[in-house]
Design goal:
The protein is an alpha/beta fold. Helix content is about 25%, strand content about 30%. The two termini are about 15 Å apart. It has a single domain, classed as UDP-N-acetylmuramoyl-L-alanine:D-glutamate ligase. The protein has an 8-stranded mixed β-sheet with strand order 4-1-9-10-11-12-13-14, sandwiched between helices. A 4-stranded mixed β-sheet has the order 3-2-7-8. It has a two-stranded parallel ribbon with strand order 5-6.
Length: about 280
């Protein structure tokens, strides 16, 4: 498929402790630097799965921004329409993982995405052709998400990103004219502001090690997680979303959930935010 992914791109600084985390103390561990951002990770995963991906974002105007842009090129993403923020502007996500790979907490500094305005999108999207599916993350401003809802002619998938940013989706639906999104993916923490939201055709709620709930109208289906030896859960939700997108908007819910969970498992078992071996996964339907 030809997919256009729109949203955040940043550097991930991931710290993982060697022993159970002790608050208020210096914890021995390891620190990894990698490219990240929900939209960027989804785009990278989709490219690994064999999709043709156009990525729309604004990179930080510093060394981290250059690092992120270079990683996108190496991942095979088309970033010809991306821009770079003013010098000194950065886009960084810092997280701390416990010894079992579960995230204790994180801090996001992503002001570059405020530049992805409706006017910016209008200029860029008219240069994008023959797209089958669009994907956006809730790092985008509300009016930009609303613009996408109203102006795209193909299915739109939206990732909620975090508890703080998930309410943007409801606000965007409210401020849009069409008031409808094909698919929203979030986790249980992010779901509070979205569960009763009208205008979402398909709602995927990640429950971590408890699996995945899929809500369509008043019907809820549950899919258990696959057995997994977790190394680093950061990026697993992005891989899940990529799997849901990769199977296509017309795929059966069971098939979409199964492949999404397979992608999430592969990422949890990798120390990297994006598992470079994701392309070896087979879509068995």
């Amino acid at each position: 498929m030809k997919i256009c992914v729109i949203g955040g791109a940043n550097v991930d600084i991931t710290a993982t402790t060697l022993n159970p985390f002790i608050p208020g103390d210096s914890n021995p561990g390891s620190i990894r630097l990698s490219s990240g951002g929900v939209a960027r990770n989804i785009a990278h995963n989709l490219a690994l799965l064999g999709d043709e991906v156009t990525f729309l974002s604004i990179f930080g105007g510093d060394t981290f921004g250059w690092f992120t842009a270079d990683s996108c090129r190496k991942a095979g993403l088309n970033i010809s329409l991306c821009d770079t923020a003013p010098v000194g502007t950065r886009s960084v996500f810092l997280c701390i993982n416990n010894v079992d790979g579960e995230m204790i907490g994180g801090v996001s500094d992503m002001n570059t995405v405020t530049g992805i305005t409706p006017e910016w999108l209008e200029q860029k999207l008219q240069k994008v052709e023959d797209i089958d599916v669009y994907v956006a993350d809730a790092n985008l401003p509300v009016d930009s998400l609303a613009y996408l809802i109203d102006h795209l002619d193909k299915p739109l998938y939206v990732d909620a990103v975090s508890k703080a940013k998930a309410p943007k989706i409801a606000a965007a639906i409210k401020h849009s004219k069409k008031k409808r999104i094909h698919t929203v993916k979030c986790n249980l923490i992010e779901a509070d502001s979205l569960l009763n939201q009208k205008g979402i055709d398909r709602f995927f709620v990640s429950l971590g090690s408890d699996g995945l709930d899929v809500i369509i109208g008043k019907k809820k289906s549950h899919f258990p997680a696959l057995p997994c030896v977790s190394v680093n859960v950061t990026g697993a939700g992005d891989a899940l979303m990529a799997g849901l997108v990769h199977v296509g908007p017309d795929a059966a819910i069971d098939d979409a959930a199964a492949f999404g969970l397979k992608c999430a498992k592969a990422t949890c078992e990798s120390p990297d935010t994006v598992n470079k071996e994701l392309g070896t996964l087979a879509v068995n339907f």
